[in-house]
Amino acid sequence: MIRNSELVFQINERIIADTENLLPKYFAIYKYLEGEDCSLEQPQKEFCMQIVCIQMFVNYFYSVYLVSLFGALKSTDRREQQAHLKYVNSYIIEGFKALWGYNKPGSSMWGKLIKEYRLVKENNVFDNDIEAITNRLKEYAESAITDKDERDLAMHYQIENGSNPRDLLKLDDITLQKELERYEQFGAIFRMMGSIITDILDHYLFQKKKNELAKLHPILPPLSSLDQHVWKSRFSEINVVITVVA
């Protein structure tokens, strides 16, 4: 269990700051992939677009989730903290639902990536990493995403027909300790996913399309292994993303 709130703040403020830089870059990559300038063939293009979508989605939902978690950690009043925890609970469950699904992982974002990877893979280099993340997502679904009743209440105060309105008190079951444990578990998946996605894109896109990518103009600070690549135009679209994230 995380006991030092300041450490949580420092780590996750860095994640949020990095996300502000990373999201516009991946948005630019996506626009390049769907445009005429990209000569990548199908199904490789579709696979890279799915990878980029997952990276943007995970970073966006995780950063919003962390902002709500910050609010819960900084709260001094129990009811104020409970209000923040309501959103912490909703964000992680709904975000995970889109990423992995509840009972239908095959139709989820990650499930689609696995299907498309099988169509384009050139060797077994990434097999173990993808399998490792898949297993972690499955374990997380079974151990951490088990409170659908609380999620329904947190999202839209749903009370089943014939139930007692006092069921709303189940929202008190959403505790800071429980959400911090869930945060720690997903944080490991978040780091694994970011690392492997960068490596896969480097192999299937950056190394293959260096000449096309070299034409792009640098508009944002370098980040991670994307430092050697530069980005281009579409300033208005990218500025919209920066505004939303900020």
Description:
The chain has one domain (5-245). It starts with a helix and ends with a helix. α3 (78-100) packs across α6. It has 246 residues and is an all-alpha fold. It is globular. 69% of the residues lie in helices and 0% in strands.
Q: Count up the domains.
A: 1
Classification by helices and strands? mainly alpha
Helix content: 55-70%
Strand content: under 5%
Record keyword descriptors for this entry:
246 residues, 0% strand, globular
Question: What are the SSEs and their pairings?
Answer:
Blueprint (H helix, E strand, L loop, with lengths): L4 H30 L9 H31 L3 H23 L8 H12 L6 H17 L4 H9 L19 H31 L3 H5 L20 H11 L1
Helix pairs in contact: 1-2, 1-9, 2-3, 2-4, 2-7, 3-6, 5-7
Offer a quick outline of the entry.
The chain has helices at 5-34, 44-74, 78-100, 109-120, 127-143, 148-156, 176-206, 210-214, 235-245.
